[in-house]
Amino acid sequence: MVNPQFHRITRSDVAREAGTSVAVVSYVINNGPRPVAPATKQRVLDAIKKTGYRPNEIARALACGTTKTYGLVVPNISNPFISSMAHALQREAFANGQVLLLGDAGDSRQRELELINNLLHRQVDGLLYTSVDRHPYIELIQATGTPFVMLDRVDAAQQTCAIRVDERAAAFQATQHLIEHGHREIAIICGPLDMLNTQDRVNGWQDALQQAGLSVRHEWTFSADYTRPGGYQAAQQMLKGPLPQALFATNELQALGCLRAMAEHNLTAPRDLALVCFNGTVESEYNVPSLTTVRQPVDAMAKTAIEMLKNWDGVPTLREFDFSLQIGESCGCFIPKLIDLPL
Length: 343
Fold this sequence. Notes:
By secondary structure, this protein is an alpha/beta fold. It has 3 domains: 11-55, 434 Repressor (Amino-terminal Domain), CATH 1.10.260.40; 68-160 and 298-323, Response regulator (Rossmann fold, 3-Layer(aba) Sandwich); 167-292, Response regulator (Rossmann fold). Helices cover 43% and strands 15% of the residues. The protein contains 13 helices and 12 strands. The chain has helices spanning 11-18, 22-30, 38-51, 57-64, 80-95, 109-121, 138-144, 167-180, 196-211, 228-238, 252-264, 282-286, 298-310, and strands at 69-74, 99-104, 126-129, 148-150, 161-165, 186-190, 221-223, 246-249, 274-277, 292-295, 318-321, 324-326. It has a 6-stranded parallel sheet. The chain has a 6-stranded mixed sheet with strand order 7-6-8-9-10-12, sandwiched between helices. Helix 5 (80-95) links the parallel strand 1 (69-74) and strand 2 (99-104). Helix 1 (11-18) packs across helix 2 (22-30), helix 5 (80-95) packs across helix 13 and helix 8 (167-180) packs parallel to helix 9. This is LacI family regulatory protein. Keywords: DNA-binding, Transcription, Transcription regulation.
């Protein structure tokens, strides 16, 4: 018997052990194209078990025209919302017999390009993709004929499949919630202004203010990266001037960074500044204070994205999902009542 520790077991080794040809071993492994006598088939199966042979699944998959793999390219897996989406996509892909290969661009557009090329060279069956700056390499993917689904808003002129929520409407609802609390001075911490989703969220904030007859004060627009440090730095800048009554942070991480900056100034939410944010995850529930946040239906979106790849027909399709506003403590809905204690 060949020791697999020192030698890569091949079909030739199996054929030698079973006393058959390599072709017969291939017929047994691939269940065709030619029939094999039951006794011979059993000898081959016994030889496979004895030698420890493992078929080259990649070679088999390529021969069948499928690699049973999807690629996922994301801006930064450390973002809780992105990691929650990746987890849901992995679960759905596995349930459909696919392996999900993760490509983390680390907020680098150059690395994003390299990851896409790498996954395309591996001949993945499909790509799921969110671009670092929302200016994706769509033409590159389309040129290969590889099915792909964008996980965020893209320019409609690019004619591709995408899943999304209406982020402008979501930002409108989040801001309107602050207005319903009676706040009239509402600032925003947003992402980089050249990004499409930033523009949607800023527009939704402005829509809500204008509908309520409130002024859009551009000095209360603070652009920053979608990170904790981004939110922290933006909040530090905001705290140098007159403090608004409320704040809409367009990302959960930004909101967490903002709370840190506020704490350094002995300020809290919602006592000193009411706060709502976008793209909350389970992290929002366990923060102190818990965050009022727009939540996307991650599980339903992941299921749909995998179905779109599985049933790919090349027809551009947009699937839009409802969002929800999860109420926490940061907006002022749940302010603990003070209890008079005996002295």
